[in-house]
Amino acid sequence: MNLFGVITKRAIREGILLIILKNCHKIFLREYLVDYHLDIDEVYAYIDEFLLFSSLSNTKIDNLEQAKNIFHDLCDNGIDFDISEKRDGSIIEHVEPNFEWFLQCIVPISLCLYLINSDFFKPYLFIHKFRDLISICDEFGIELPEIPKKSDKQSRFAYYWGFCESIYNFK
Predict the structure, then answer these.
(1) Which pLDDT score, from 0 to 100, does residue 130 have?
(2) Is 155's pLDDT higher than 50?
(3) What is the C-alpha to C-alpha distance for residues 107 and 134, in angstroms, rounded to an integer?
(4) How far is CA 38 from CA 21, 23, 30, 146, in A?
(5) 3-class secondary structure, 79
(6) Phi, psi (deg, nearest 5) at residue 37
(7) DSSP of 110-127, one letter per residue?
(8) Looking at residue 14, what is its pLDDT?
(9) Contact 43, 33 (CB under 8 A)
(10) How far lies 47's CA from each of 27, 41, 125, in Å?
(11) pLDDT (tens digit, 9 = 90+) per residue, 106-147?
């Protein structure tokens, strides 16, 4: 039986899932990332860089609408990274929105957003086990957004926000 098979609706509503994920994330992620064919050290390095240097790292999010706006701003405008040394002045590297790249990096991006604010953003760890996600959501009565066409990369990336919104509304 997997982790999700033993969690009840009440446990999820009370936030126990969040506690489990926070305390077991390295073990859980290491096992998952093997399936995802990613090197865990690379993913952790990516997350560290994102949290240290991205324009989103110090963002304060107070409500669902702000979280939605931040996500849509990322989709529309990309993201800035301050890669300067404090003594050398500011060097900003701008990453334009590229939905093919966003989709390839959805797992680390979702983890970064989750670490910025776990109330509104959730780790998206189901890209290779999407049917499992659908089964879990069906079991708990969580309505997911409509699945976009595979060729529509922007809508597929935006699906992540719909997933986060569905989980938030379920809580």
Answers:
(1) 85
(2) yes
(3) 17
(4) 19, 21, 9, 28
(5) strand
(6) 65, 40
(7) HHHHHHH-TTT------S
(8) 42
(9) yes
(10) 16, 10, 15
(11) 888 888 888 888 899 998 888 777 888 899 889 999 999 999
